[in-house]
Amino acid sequence: MAIKRSDLIDSENAGYYHLISRCVRRAFLCGVDDETGVSYEHRRAW
């Protein structure tokens, strides 16, 4: 069952959440994992 974003994230810290999630998406989830060598480049189209 999904949880509403308003229940999951404190509205006072929403800016920090946005910044962190954006950094994670651009840095690791859409690149190549240095430890395993697995490429996640296909996720860039998401």
Please render the helix and strand layout as text.
Elements: H1 5-8, H2 14-29
Short précis:
The chain has 46 residues and is an all-alpha fold. The protein is built from 2 helices and no strands.
Walk me through what this model shows.
With 46 residues, this protein is mainly alpha-helical. The protein has one domain (12-45). Helix content is 43%, strand content 0%. 0% of the residues are buried. The model has no long low-confidence stretch (mean pLDDT 71).
Tag the structure with descriptive keywords.
46 residues; mainly alpha; 2 helices; 43% helix
* Percent of sequence in beta strands: under 5%
Task: Give the rounded overall mean pLDDT.
Answer: 71
> How many separate helices?
2
Would you count the extended β strands for me?
0
Molecular shape: elongated
Could you give a short account of the major beta sheet?
Answer: none
- Measure the end-to-end span: 23 Å
Low-pLDDT segments, ≥5 res: none
Helix content: 40-55%
Rg computed from alpha carbons, rounded to a whole number of angstroms: 14 Å
Structural class: mainly alpha
Helix-strand pattern, N to C? HH
Domain count: the total is 1
